[in-house]
């Protein structure tokens, strides 16, 4: 029995392509690359970037603003020049006759004080006062801001809803309003209780060296503080509603 091994019909073509592609590159790289010369070997620091040659710095307008050269030793200055001008008197007369400079009008456009100058202020604004300038520049000057109007509407709406709720509860008989006399009596009773506790607090020992003394002092302070809160709340609100339970 004979076993035949499979032989591709492209075998010879593949061997030819392999030889063509591999044989020229058996050296140090492809054939089209030149072999480096032994005389041009790699030197130290040859691949590092090199700075350009140092040149003397010079401004473009040096010639316009340059100072004149120092006079030589042989140069003679002009001698014998005199003037009869009285500089003190001349300066005094110029300052007296000078017209004061008017500052240019401006306004602060931000809260940090950033100033914005006004162009043609003399022709545009007859009056230089700040309210007149602001009334011309800002159309909403002197008017109520939008957020305040919105806040006022929210407060008004909340008050109306609260009044409606109170009326409904009073109609159902679940709440009633304290009269002025009842409110006054409650307020006086709260103050009387506070005076009584305060009298007891004043009679406490100065030294709280035991646990019962400390506990009694803390209890009196807590009760007095609660009464103070109730008195303040009652005095602040003129209209008080209580639930009928």
Strands, helices and their partners?
Blueprint: H1 11-22, H2 62-65, H3 87-97, E1 106-108, E2 115-117, H4 121-124, H5 130-137, H6 146-172, E3 175-177, H7 180-202, H8 211-236, E4 241-243
Antiparallel strand pairs: 1-2, 3-4
Helix pairs in contact: 7-8
Task: Bin the helical content.
Answer: 40-55%
Averaged pLDDT:
82
Structural class: mainly alpha
Strand order of the largest sheet: 1-2
Helix count?
Answer: 8
Number of strands: 4
Main location: other
Subcellular location: Cell projection, Cilium; Cytoplasm, Cytoskeleton
Biased composition (Basic and acidic residues): 45-59
Region (Disordered): 17-80
How would you describe this structure to a colleague?
The chain is mostly helical. It is built from 8 helices and 4 strands. Among the domains are: 144-173; 177-243. The chain has helices at residues 11-22, 62-65, 87-97, 121-124, 130-137, 146-172, 180-202, 211-236; strands spanning 106-108, 115-117, 175-177, 241-243. A hairpin with a 6-residue loop joins strand 1 (106-108) and strand 2 (115-117). Helix 7 packs antiparallel against helix 8. GO terms for molecular function: calmodulin binding. Residues 45-59 have a biased composition (Basic and acidic residues).
